[in-house]
Amino acid sequence: MTSSDPKPSSAGLPRTAVPTGIVDPVASARAELKAALAAIEIKGNVPRRVEQASQRGIRRARAFAGRNPIGAAAAVLGVAAAVGGAVWLIARAVSR
């Protein structure tokens, strides 16, 4: 267990939550600081957020392809045509 892992007594709380029932002002301030730093880390860790978003997108695309394979194939063809058209337009603009 590292210092950033939640303690077993607070297993039901997210890392960014401050446990209730802390009477000691020093312990309360430490808990608030720990929660604030965890929230900053979660918000500021852009590569991790991009990774999680891409994994969610992949799961959604696979679920959609499982439910509607023809629609998924049409979507892939549409995206490929749009990217191909954009590349063609850029190449044409650069060549002139």
From TrEMBL:
Keyword Membrane included in the entry's annotation: yes
Keywords: Membrane, Transmembrane, Transmembrane helix
Domain of life, source organism: Bacteria
Transmembrane segments: 70-91
Name of the protein described by the UniProt record: DUF3618 domain-containing protein
Classification lineage: Bacteria, Bacillati, Actinomycetota, Actinomycetes, Micrococcales
